[in-house]
Structure formats: C-alpha cells, structure tokens
Amino acid sequence: MPAAFRTSAQLVLVPVTVTDHNGKTVEGLQAKDFHVLEDHVPQQIVSFFAEDAPASIGLVLDISGSMRNTLDGAKGIAHAFFQTANPEDEFLLLTVSTQPDAVSKFTSDIADLEASIDRTSPGGMTALIDTVYLALNDMRKANQPRRALLILSDGMDNYSRYSKGELMRAALEANVQIYSIIVDNGSGALGTGGAPFRPSMAAKPIDQAREREGPNVLEELADKTGGLHFHVGNYAEAQEAVVKAGRALRNQYVIGYQPPNSGAAGGPGKWHEVRVKSTVPKVKVYARNGYYAP
After folding, report:
1. Which of 14, 35, 69, 194 is most deeply buried (CB count within 10 A of its CB)?
2. CATH label of the domain that carries residue 169
3. Rounded Cα distance, 250 and 246, in Å
4. Neighbour-count burial for 28-43, b at 16+ CB within 10 Å, e otherwise
5. Is 104 among the domain residues?
6. Domain limits at 39?
7. Do 81 and 155 lie in a common domain?
8. 78 and 222 in one domain?
9. How many structural domains compose the chain?
10. φ/ψ bin of 151: left (φ > 0), alpha (ψ from -120 to 50), beta (otherwise)
C-alpha cells in the first residue's frame, strides 16, 4: 500500500514522521504508540506500516537576486539532497526568479538535473509563491504515490500574483508533503559573501511586508502538509538540514483509519481536521493537519 495521504469512503491514510529533540528520525514505533483524532474525535487505527518507497520529489530552487550571496551554497545543498535518493525516485526541478521556470519534467537522471542546477545564475525578482503553486500543479503528473516538495529559498517574495491563501488552499488539496530549508541571505554564509542583497530598501512598505512574510509562509506550508522546515545560517547547518529532510522523507509511518460516517458528515468538500499524537515522550510528530472530503 503506497504511503500517500489518500481519502475514500473506507480509509484515510496519513503519512507520519517522528523525530527526537535533535531532529533525528525515530524508527521502530508501532501502532500502539500513536493516537489519531479527526475533528477532535479519537479514531481507531486499522492499518499501520513503515516503508521506504520510491518518491516523486519536486525541487524548488530560488535563484532570484536575493539569493546572490547564497546560491552557490544552495546548489551544494541540492546536490547533497540527491545523495539521499532512492534509486527509483524521480525528480522535478523548478527555479524561482521573476517568472517561475519549470527547468525539468520528472526524470530519474540525477546527473542531468545537477548539470541544470550548476548552470543557473542568480538574478531577477522573486515570484516564490507562484513557483510553489506551479510546482504543486506539476506534481499531479508524478508517477509515484509518495510525493514531496523541497524548497530551498530565503523565503522572500516580491513578485507573485497568487496570494498566500490561494497557495495554502492548493497545498492542502494536494497529496504532497512540503519540506522547506530557509536560508539566511543576510550574511552570505552559504556563498561568496559580500554585501547582502536588499531590494526591500527600495520597495514600497506593502512590498516590504510581503517579503518579510515569506519565511512564515514556508514554515506554514511545511507544518500543514506534514513536512519539516529548517532555518539555516551557514553551510554546515544547511547540510545537516537536508540530510534530516531526506531521512524524514524516507522513514515514515503510514497510519490508516476509517473516517466517521464514511466521510458523509458535511458532504463533499468539507474540511476535516486531523491530529496525530504519540504516546512516546520527548518526540515531535509531523503529519498534515487535515483534508477536504472527496
């Protein structure tokens, strides 16, 4: 059974990641170590398994002007992430600049993807929300049931047409976990150094507010879809974060339960809140926080 968040009249499947206080993935847990609630009502777990299944992964790489000092480091982090791959994984590559660019369709040719990443150069405004929105749309073409996005960005957005609300709705409707690595571009610690790039100095106040909101959007995307987010200030932290993200994606539990009233309450399109908790002390549980009834 694939490890995808799926809903039907018979079963809801929820992928779950568990980490310790150091962010290390916790393995070896059993169904008895978890509680599931839907709309605040406890649910009986009827299926439970753990697996390292192939995945379809979209990589969203920010190459906009705000990443001028950190893009070289971000490229290195992308390469490190590919080292965590399952041989049967497939990858999609999109870059963030003034316009979203779908650099590559789904492929398992990692060498070609890495060459495409190495050819990128920083520049332009930042349409981050638009690019993630496009990536979620492209994930519908994925061949594997386990699906995830990895976003490498400073979180700044100053050129998107889609709103945060539109993006959040798309993310919650998609069967995709989102992982965010949010880099500090102020010091240039991931790259070549030099003066920080700060287009917000010339931006209107409303644009400055939107730029500051970016990291919060990336955090919320991860939290609501069951992924992880990391703030990194140097290359060592970024390397550690990408390894943790790769392991978390690889080591998941999939919990299944029967939705109350076969999902009839409220009818199609109703939002159902899902909470997954663990009885194991001092661990953190990551799972998407709900679904829209099919």
Report:
1. 14
2. 3.40.50.410
3. 6
4. ebeeebbebebbeeeb
5. yes
6. 6-52+253-292
7. yes
8. yes
9. 2
10. beta
Q: Is residue 1 part of a domain?
A: no
The span from the CA of 221 to the CA of 227, in Å, is 8
The string of DSSP codes covering 10-76 is: S-EEEEEEEE-TTSPBP----GGGEEEEETTEEE-EEEEEEE---EEEEEEEE-SGGGTTTHHHHHH
105 lies in the same domain as 170: yes
Same domain, yes or no, for 128 and 242? yes
Q: Do both 59 and 174 map to the same domain?
A: yes
Count of alpha carbons within 13 Å of 159, Cβ hemisphere only?
17
Are 93 and 226 contained in the same domain? yes
Do 32 and 144 sit in the same domain of this protein? no
Shared-domain flag, residues 160 and 42: no
For the four alpha carbons of 53, 250, 275 and 223, in that order, the dihedral sign comes to negative
294 residues of the chain, pLDDT tens digit each: 444 556 555 799 999 999 999 999 999 999 999 999 999 999 999 999 997 889 999 999 999 999 998 999 999 999 999 999 999 999 999 999 999 999 999 999 999 999 999 999 999 999 999 999 999 999 999 999 999 999 999 999 999 999 999 999 999 999 999 999 999 876 555 754 433 334 343 445 555 555 557 789 999 999 999 999 999 989 899 999 999 999 999 899 999 999 986 544 567 889 999 999 999 999 999 999 999 988
Contact 98, 124 (CB under 8 A): yes
Provide the token pair at 235.
Answer: 């290359």
For strands 55-62 and 90-96, give the pairing.
Answer: parallel
**Spatial distance between the Cα atoms of 215 and 184, rounded to a whole number of angstroms:** 10
**Phi–psi pair at 261, nearest 5 degrees:** 55, 30
Helices (H), the chain: 71-82, 110-119, 128-138, 164-173, 205-225, 235-250
- Integer Cα distance of 220 and 69 in angstroms: 25
